[in-house]
Amino acid sequence: MRGRNDAGQSKRPILLCCMMIVCLCLLFLYFSGSNGQAKSTAFEYGTKFTRTLGWGSDDGEDGSEESVFGTGDADDIKPKSFPVCNDRHSELIPCLDRNLIYQMRLKLDLNLMEHYERHCPPPERRFNCLIPPPHGYKVPIKWPKSRDVVWKANIPHTHLAKEKSDQNWMVEAGEKIKFPGGGTHFHHGADKYISNIANMLNFKANNINNEGMLRTVLDVGCGVASFGGYLLSSNVIAMSLAPNDVHQNQIQFALERGIPAYLGVLGTKRLPYPSRSFELAHCSRCRIDWLQRDGILLLELDRLLRPGGYFAYSSPEAYAQDEEDLRIWKEMSALVERMCWQIAEKRNQTVIWVKPLNNDCYRRRALGTKPPLCKSGDDPDSVWGVPMEACITPYPEQMHRDGGTGLAPWPARLTTPPPRLADLYVTADTFEKDTEMWQQRVENYWSLLGPKVKPDTIRNIMDMKANFGSFAAALKDKDVWVMNVVPHDGPSTLKIIYDRGLIGSNHDWCEAFSTYPRTYDLLHAWTVFSDLDKRGCSAEDLLLEMDRILRPTGFIIVRDKSIVTDFIKKYLHALHWEAITVVDAETSPESEENEMILIIRKKLWLPEASSQDSTM
Fold first, then answer.
1. For residues 28 and 107, what is the distance between their CA atoms, to the nearest angstrom?
2. By the number of CB atoms within 10 A of the CB, which of 87, 126, 129, 446 ranks highest?
3. Dihedral sign, CA of 311, 315, 321, 324?
4. Within a domain: residue 62?
5. Domain end marker among 361, 387, 406
6. What is the distance between the alpha carbons of residues 545 and 189, in angstroms, rounded to a whole number?
């Protein structure tokens, strides 16, 4: 009996060890397999690793004030690599992902286009992997050739070429896709159509820029952005806007062509642009019901147009004689009349309305006229996630008295202090010093980039924290355009950027940007990571997002504290990035402490050879 008891006791430790091993295996499978999903999904969702390093928290819920960038010691944890996302995610836009909408069972009103608005994944559903380029991806064709032709392998979608074959949107040509410059309403070319609009407005020499007084344009429902692309030769810049709808790759084509564009929709939220930003709004067969909800979408355009701004509308309602089109035209005409718009010209299939220069017409309207004026407490420049309102935005008293914006013509507008600086209590002297400082900084950047950058290397640029837009202003002599991003929770400087004749958007860098992967050649991040740290958002998520939107062989310029640049350098290998240089930044009064400049280049890697680093 004694021998048997000893034998039983000796087996218990072995049994316990076996049970522990089984439990550990199950735990490993749980964390790696993401609740039993396919192995590829385990590579796509990954917050467990980030949380162990103190990242992945969006609201600092642990109450810790320790920086996410750690101590800066060389012994801090360094990721060896990031997994590659599944090929089906090669065009992922995290906050405009329809699969996410279905998976989260969001209850959205399709009639109000809510399914095309931003819906970002919660932290536990964010992707923790590198977005792969499509098979056969090539370095994009350089501007200005890219306006007319791109590589088909980079955007392997030809359905628009077939669907819009009679409208000259795009044409397949072997391994390339060509863009003849046509559109739904301008089959014979955007250049002729633009000239016709200028002629309708009696602009000198049929030039749409109106001697520099028309500079910024909003093109709603832009297609592949040929309208915006052909405006550029007239020194006019358009924000080409379209949703990720059935023509889902139209904005991707626009950006691949080197044309400014943004994924957005006139739905329930204000567009991420400040009031009185555009001299011209344009809609060519954009299929928008302008009469819905008391004209709320047309009133959003009204908020965005400057005093005396134009709305060019090319659509069957403007010329067709069938009963339904006549009804829409009659009701739309009555609506814009109550909004104090007047017809500047109506010819053939296009009508152009003009917005009043001051508040006089609004004040003459009968009491109770709809749409009403917006309440005095409404901030027309507060836009991030703010619902639209069916009301007219009146002009501030100073703008009313001036009878316009008081802006200089382009290109003097770029460096002339705009009147709205006073809204921010910023002096002309401060503005001019900021312009001069960034001119020097940009010259230094290009000196550091040196032989890596040729005149046509860079086309699409994003300034991730643009302030007054002086970084973009310093690039005026280069053949580039800049998406100026202004933090949604900071001073409303985006209106100053538009008043300089530049374009941009509000954004929250705790979330993904509304663009396709591989759409920018250069990202400029001035203290963006330090700001993110203060809010407790994930620095790792931001690195992955920057990698998503940066083109292979593209550049990143980080200007931030040394602890930030040290942190980023630990990720270079994992992200397939290489450091070009890291130097001390020039000192300036705006810097809280000494800043560093880290210049990075993204390597070109392909899914079938992701383990090999290939540079261009």
1. 35
2. 126
3. negative
4. no
5. 406
6. 36
**Cα–Cα distance measured from residue 272 to residue 463, given in angstroms and rounded to the nearest whole number:** 16
- Cβ atoms of 197 and 205 closer than 8 Å: no
Residue 608 has what pLDDT?
64
Domain region containing 247: 184-406
One DSSP character per residue, 233-269 reads GGT-EEEEEE-SSTTTTHHHHHHHTT--EEE--SSSB
Q: Residue 399 phi/psi, 5° resolution?
A: -65, -35
357 and 427 belong to one structural domain: no
Q: 397: which residues sit within 8 A by CB, 6+ positions away? A: none
Question: Residue 360: exposed, middle, or buried by beta-carbon count in 10 A (0-12, 13-18, 19+)?
Answer: exposed
67 assigned to some structural domain: no
Same domain, yes or no, for 489 and 514?
yes
The verdict on residue 608 lying in a domain is no
Considering only CA atoms, which of 353, 356, 378, 381 is closest in space to residue 270? 381
Number of Cβ within 10 Å of residue 536's Cβ equals 19
pTM: 0.89
Q: Are residues 302 and 341 in the same domain?
A: yes
Question: Tell me: the pLDDT tens digits for 349-374?
Answer: 899 999 999 999 999 999 999 999 99
Q: Do 399 and 420 share a domain, yes or no?
A: no
Q: What is the pLDDT of residues 604-616, one digit of tens each?
A: 998 765 444 333 3
> What are the pLDDT digits (tens) for 463-519?
999 999 999 999 999 999 999 999 999 999 999 999 999 999 999 999 999 999 999
395 and 318 both lie in a single domain = yes
Share of the chain above pLDDT 70, in %: 84
Judged against a pLDDT cut of 80, whether residue 458 lies above it is answered with: yes
Pairing of strands 595-602, 237-242: unpaired
Judge whether residue 166 has pLDDT over 90: no
Contact 560, 529 (CB under 8 A): yes
For residue 604, the cross-strand partners are: 614
Q: Please report which helix (H) or strand (E) contains residue 331, including its range.
A: helix 323-338
Distances (CA, A) of 69 to 1, 54, 79, 563: 63, 9, 14, 7
Indicate if 339 and 444 belong to the same structural domain. Answer: no
Report the C-alpha gap between 219 and 386 in whole angstroms: 21
Q: What is the DSSP string of 582-612?
A: EEEPPP-TT-SS-EEEEEEEE-B--GGGTTS
The answer, yes or no, to whether residue 21 has pLDDT greater than 80, is no
**Distance separating alpha carbons of residues 250 and 174, to the nearest angstrom:** 20
